[in-house]
Model the fold of this input.
Amino acid sequence: MRAILTWHSVDESDSPISVRPEVFRRQVEFLGSGRVRVVPLAALAAATDDGEDAVALTFDDGFANVGAIALPELAAQRLPATVFVVPEHVGGRNDWGGHTTRGIPTLPLMDWRALGVARDAGFEIGAHTRRHRDLAAIGGAALEDEVAGCVERMDAELGERPSSFAYPYGRTSPEAITVVRDVYARAVTTEFRLLRGTEDHALLPRIDMYYFRSPGQLESWGNASFMRRLWIRAQGRRVRRLVAGDGVSM
Ligand SMILES: [Zn+2]
Done:
């Protein structure tokens, strides 16, 4: 069983983008226990399903609390992870487009220096568009700038071109997927499921750890209650997407 796990912010607010520090610590203890192999995102995407349990860890938006709390805990357990950042907001806050969103805390994001430290510690720094725009709502030059321009900006700041990409809000369009496929080796969505035997590398599914934030939920990996939880959440998200057009603000 293989999966890409997602977190956003490690903080005390209990918002839909937050996991509490003590919960995260427990999740890292489990991930470091050896029960499930933790591999870099590129390795997981490239592997074929050999029946072995494996996960890749991802963090969207590059919150400062991830740099301060999550990455040091992962480093202590020698666990790899990918952090997806928004270059025009690096060192700023998650007020995408100058707006805040009700129920979502506005928090500081890692700056380029912190991202350089994380990269030098072995973490992958991936791209999450230049400004966290909804790619389904734009096209042409604007889309090109968000997707390809993001690589140039990150290369200029970090001296390295990102090869992994995360779609803001999980939103895609045929045009966006084509541009992303041209620019990046792999891209992750918010489609809520495990990886199958073969996957389109431009549309990799992920499991949001917000839905596994209670004690024991991630630790139940692979057993009946874990699988039931996965299925229920997938149904809930499908229904919300049909009703609200997937307006989750992440
Ligand atoms: Zn995001």
